[in-house]
Amino acid sequence: MSPIFRRTEKKKPQDRTVTLIGKPGCHLCDDAQLVIEKVCGELGVVWEKKDITQDEELNKAYWEQIPVVLVDGEQHTFWRVNEDRLRRELAP
Q1: Which InterPro entries does the annotation name (predicted)?
Q2: What does the DSSP 8-state code read for residue 46?
Q3: Taking the domain 13-90, which CATH number applies?
């Protein structure tokens, strides 16, 4: 019998993934990256960066919203990243 995972169950920070979707030359993307690097570094969360100019599907989905931040594949925020809100989302 496999365990049932509910959305309300919190994952450990090291089991989370943050994705920053942006593009080169975007100052809001640079600002978002600084916040993500800080929070993820402090909590031990893995993060990745994706460039919408290199991915047609991401470009179609998010071009008006960049930077976009996903947490475990679900949209967390866009345009501006609030450090406290991101920290609360990722905290155990």
Answers
A1: Glutaredoxin-like, Glutaredoxin-like_YDR286C, Thioredoxin-like_sf
A2: E
A3: 3.40.30.10
